[in-house]
Amino acid sequence: MSQFGNLFIGIAGMIGAGKSTLATALAEHLDMDVHYEPVADNVYLEDFYRDTPRYAFAMQVYLLNRRFQQHQEIIWRGRSAVQDRTIYEDAIFARILAEQGAMSQRDHETYLSLFKHMSNFMCRPNLIVYLDVKPEASIARIRQRGRSFEQGISEDYLRRLYQGYEDFIADISRRIPVIRVDYSRYATAEEMASIIEREYLQHDFLRNAPRMELEGAL
Question: 0.70 exceeded by the pTM?
Fold first, then answer.
C-alpha cells in the first residue's frame, strides 16, 4: 500500500501527452493500481474518427461510462490508484465537438446532464497531475506513435483542445490539488514520479513541478 494511504491520482493532458507512460511509472513507484484510458478495446474509436458527427455523442457517452466504471472500481477496491485521463476531461472534448458542430446542442446538453447526475456518485482524485504539452509537441507525438485513426487530427483542433485544457485546469484547481508538469523538462517518467511524490507532500494548489529539479534530472 502507498505510504499516503488510499491515494487517488488522476493524470490529465492532451492527446499524445504521455499520460499512460507516467501513470505506469507512478503506479510502480507508489505501489498503486493503474487504470488506463480505453483505447484498444474502444468499440467506437475508429468509427468516431471516420465519421465524427455521426458517432460523437455515442463516443462521449461510451467514454463517460467507462471512466465512471473505473471510478467505481477504485472505490470498491479501497486501494490507492492512478487513472490515465480523468472523467472530468471528457467534458472538454464534448464542448469542442459542440462548438465545431460535430455534436448537436441537444446531444451536448444531454451529455452534460448525464455527467452531472453521475458525478454525485464519483470520488474526486486527491491530486491531478497535468502534463502541459503544447499543440505542436502533441501533434508530433501523434505522428510518431502512428495510430492510423489519429493521423487526421489537425493542429487547429489541438490548439482548441489546449485552450480547453488551460480553462479546465484553472477551474478544477480550485477544488482539487493540481501539479502542472512541463513534460519536456525531465528525462524519465520514473524521475518525474519521484518529483510528484515529493510535491504532493506540500498539499498546495496548482503547483508547478520545480524547474531546477527538472533541469537537474536531464
Answer: yes
Catalytic residue among 33, 41, 51, 84: 84
- 16: which residues sit within 8 A by CB, 6+ positions away? 133, 137, 138, 139, 140, 141, 142, 145
Q: How far, in Å, CA of 115 to CA of 111, rounded?
A: 6
**Residues 66-110: pLDDT tens digits?**
999 998 898 888 888 999 999 999 999 999 999 999 999 999 999
For this structure, is 132 an active site residue? no
Topology at the third CATH level for domain 8-217: Rossmann fold (3.40.50)
**Domain spans of the chain, in order of start:** 8-217
CB atoms within 10 A of CB 42: 15
**Cell output for 27:** 503506479
As given in the structure block, the three cell numbers for residue 83 are 487513472
